[in-house]
Amino acid sequence: MTNKDARTPVSSQTNISNQANGVFAASQGKKPEEEQKSIGWHKAYVGGSRPDLRVPVRQVHLTNGQSVTLYDTSGPYTDPSLDTDVRRGLPPLRENWILARGDTEEYPGRPVRPEDDGIKHTSPRGGLRNLDAVFPGRPRQPRRSRDGKAVTQLAYARRGEITPEMEFVALRENVLPEVVREEIAAGRAVLPANVNHPEIEPMIIGKRFLVKVNANIGNSAVTSSIEEEVEKMTWATHWGADTVMDLSTGRNIHTTREWVLRNSPVPIGTVPLYQALEKVDGKAEELTWEIYKDTVIEQAEQGVDYMTVHAGVRLPYVPLTANRKTGIVSRGGSIMAAWCLAHHKESFLYENFEELCEILATYDVTYSLGDGLRPGSIADANDEAQFAELRTLGELNRIAKRFHVQTMIEGPGHVPMHKIKENIDLQQEICDEAPFYTLGPLTTDVAPAYDHITSGIGAAMIAWWGTAMLCYVTPKEHLGLPHRDDVKTGVITYKIAAHAADLAKGHPGAQEWDDALSDARFEFRWEDQFNLALDPDTAREFHDETLPAEPAKTAHFCSMCGPKFCSMKISQDIRREHGGSQAEIEAGMVQKSKEFAASGNRVYLPIAD
Amino acid sequence: MTNKDARTPVSSQTNISNQANGVFAASQGKKPEEEQKSIGWHKAYVGGSRPDLRVPVRQVHLTNGQSVTLYDTSGPYTDPSLDTDVRRGLPPLRENWILARGDTEEYPGRPVRPEDDGIKHTSPRGGLRNLDAVFPGRPRQPRRSRDGKAVTQLAYARRGEITPEMEFVALRENVLPEVVREEIAAGRAVLPANVNHPEIEPMIIGKRFLVKVNANIGNSAVTSSIEEEVEKMTWATHWGADTVMDLSTGRNIHTTREWVLRNSPVPIGTVPLYQALEKVDGKAEELTWEIYKDTVIEQAEQGVDYMTVHAGVRLPYVPLTANRKTGIVSRGGSIMAAWCLAHHKESFLYENFEELCEILATYDVTYSLGDGLRPGSIADANDEAQFAELRTLGELNRIAKRFHVQTMIEGPGHVPMHKIKENIDLQQEICDEAPFYTLGPLTTDVAPAYDHITSGIGAAMIAWWGTAMLCYVTPKEHLGLPHRDDVKTGVITYKIAAHAADLAKGHPGAQEWDDALSDARFEFRWEDQFNLALDPDTAREFHDETLPAEPAKTAHFCSMCGPKFCSMKISQDIRREHGGSQAEIEAGMVQKSKEFAASGNRVYLPIAD
């Protein structure tokens, strides 16, 4: 099934449906040839230096004939000219770029085992499989670096090479490719792009670029299915998620991940420790470096672009959490702490970190060095345990860089507003300006069911001060597994935080979006307001709740104040009555004021003179 | 109809229903005598220096036998021992205090005219009425200061008097009464309490106190009714609104306001200009000082506690808005600008400000000096027009203080994060630290339908930096009139912002709430988490969506991670396995670590030594 007609990335088999419905409403019912010029928005591409380098954008066409170009994370699903099919996966956009470099090779790869999907060794469903069996859409072998070749974007950047991936993100961010290369080379930005994930549209994470948003998906032992996870992924990227972390912990982890990867236009992150723990039946003390390493390779071969590694949770730091109000709240952190205490040994992740670097470098998997000791409550923010781990992450960051492994650093968590800045300042200092990737932080603990908001506040602030990527929090945080609506609410809330930060950082072009919407608002171009909104569907729905009639879409007021009290209308009336064009209005106003002043009423402030 | 049985402030006549339902769920179905000790929360009172001085609190009883005391704005409606009836109004709590001072007198008052309710002079329904006819519940005459008496809380504070109102808020805020008196006397705080609104439970607005939240209600010409507005008011205070502004602009303004006032446990604010404009059929240029003054007296006699007055919108500032992207977005501001330009005269509010001060002082109405030229878009933030008006507000603030009129200053609006601090810093400097009362600010314009969030971010920040009260924004902002759910979402979002600011300011006792909830979370006391939450209903509902069974309420995990991956559970297991009591755990952990260090692995960070 294709999305040619309905313009919705639908496959009846995987139950992905309707995610683009509302957004496309403005152009629905029109013939293809009319589409490009219709009001609303459509997918467009900005061409690069080669024919296969086309950067997707969201082009919003306004009723006044102007158009606004916005960053687009929705992938090929919103391109009506492309056939997408979740059983086949997305086209491997980067394949030629990877092949052309000639520094990687295909190899048979690690066989897929039943236990990779959480199936017991004794299960009748047992037996070895290959990747094709997991995802029949595109037969492939995994790819790795040829001996001695450094295949990470960091290595290329350090050598002075501007890869197609770098050019792609430069066009996306509207900066020079050299800026992208420099930031990556300096370790201030990462471009997560596993050689086994050619489907992604490259993106960059760094403080000089647009603030990014990650959405977590993942089934747990309690609920959820493969289909739901793939749908959640496309749903999240549809609303603006820049990366997606698959945090599945239940059955079918391997297969779920494969389907997610083959259909994802954005980088996918994971926490390999979760799957490793499944392989030892949830007994932390039975984890071994070998099992962990094997899991990392398994996931790297699938194409995971970045991995959270809790190598900073070291044995001596565990006692530092004893006085905490909420102990260790990171799943990975608590697993590693339990392992360290059970064996009374230093963390196997810390001890084998260099070998891990070698593995990640082989595939260009990016590190997301996990903050396993992040605070889980306002009371525990910025404590000894948290900052001790951060100093270790700084040490590990330097080791990773020796292996040309791209690295970002994860941050908290739960932090009251006055303690947020210390987090980013210290992280930037200790970690040589490596990108900070924070969860929230939540600025208070008293509002379960609203933690997208308690954390959106902290997220906006820490992003303004330099955090490069924000991990979203949904309304279900602390209470349950997010559903479709929760994912959307989480993504939209975090897009707000990210964009508010882009504005505050003075990111070039960020304010154009606000300005376009403000102009539409002042001029009562309701359809333009909706189409420019982060969530056009809900904006339109809210407006129509009180003023549903079609004429209201062009009315010079809304139901908030009614026609008589609309300040925007009165403002316009003032302009209309006291002048014609903008220049005339101004001249007229200034003239009137001068007359007033000349009449003896010297009431002007100095700034008006 | 009373609320004795259902514990919901219901009147079938006014259709107020169910607002307390969910919150009381925990104690529903229990007999009254069990109630006081039951899990959940109940209304309690903290006694003062006299029997009629009892400060309401929300007492949350936890399953571990402890209890937490929270600030309570819900009024007598949540007291099951009181009969409330919206046709009768709330008991006049402050009446004896006002009478005892002996500085006010009853008088016949201004007759109520049909046009006060927006009814044309020629209407067959016309004819003069008195206040009794408008609200039959409690026959009364309005009250005003006796000749020459200064009856404002500011005047009392300056004279060194600690009024019962001041003692009430001192108990509420857990500070010494002298601190309250000092802050009011210095003009750094206001205690809005019209002598004609004896029903309120006094509250204070100032940066040394808890950050307050205002909720706007009000019918517009397009929709809404008296019943809905009264219900919205009690609904808003139920969820934590500290004051309510009645911004009605349609029919029945006078009567709606009377019903709201007689049933409101919190101070009520208004914008008299809106009603004045109704009286001249919406024609701004026909407004006169006389009509405005008459409206102010009308509302003051009813008991309005604070009034927004746009006296800072002066003729010479109007041209400063000509280059703006969104002109003048304040309704009051645009009305006054239109008047100034139409007559080419200085604002009648500015010109007659001293006489207005005399009127407000007569009833102890507090000024909320409106920011009629606040920015309506990111592009217009912190511009000349805005700050020119702010300087005038500083001037007016000093005049008001000469008349002993309590005064707060309104602030924006739409401001990107990096320009927020300048607003509060400048306001505090220019306005002699008078309380700042801001709308948001919205930190981006691109998310209509989510402006409670775009503005909640800015609100939390500006409150941290010193704003004393936040005017809420609902999801319907810019799109339509808020309904019941929107009001709740707006209030909860702003309670989050206010509390996050209280935490960041280090307000004494603020963190106890977070700590209690964090403890409950770490100890898997689910019911306690719900009952301590800002919105217990939604927290419980979200949890039950995925794990509805009763045992899940005591389960040591939730559906987010499932039993195997619950970090809190692992954390607890660690503590249990490696020690007994908290002290033993710590000792054990430290001992283990010391052994580790002694073994030659000197891995400790300096801070751990």
Automatic annotation (TrEMBL), chains A, B:
Keyword Iron among UniProt keywords: yes
Record-listed Zn(2+) binding positions: 414, 478
GO terms, molecular function: 4 iron, 4 sulfur cluster binding; phosphomethylpyrimidine synthase activity; zinc ion binding
Swiss-Prot/TrEMBL keywords: 4Fe-4S, Iron, Iron-sulfur, Lyase, Metal-binding, S-adenosyl-L-methionine, Thiamine biosynthesis, Zinc
Note accompanying the cofactor annotation: Binds 1 [4Fe-4S] cluster per subunit. The cluster is coordinated with 3 cysteines and an exchangeable S-adenosyl-L-methionine.
Reactions this protein catalyses: 5-amino-1-(5-phospho-beta-D-ribosyl)imidazole + S-adenosyl-L-methionine = 4-amino-2-methyl-5-(phosphooxymethyl)pyrimidine + CO + 5'-deoxyadenosine + formate + L-methionine + 3 H(+)
Compositionally biased tracts (Polar residues): 8-21
Domain ThiC-associated: 42-105
Stored InterPro entries: ThiC, ThiC-associated_dom, ThiC/Bza_core_dom, ThiC/BzaA/B
Family annotation (PANTHER family): PHOSPHOMETHYLPYRIMIDINE SYNTHASE, CHLOROPLASTIC, THIAMINE BIOSYNTHESIS PROTEIN THIC
Protein name stated in the entry: Phosphomethylpyrimidine synthase
Species for this entry: Streptomyces acidicola
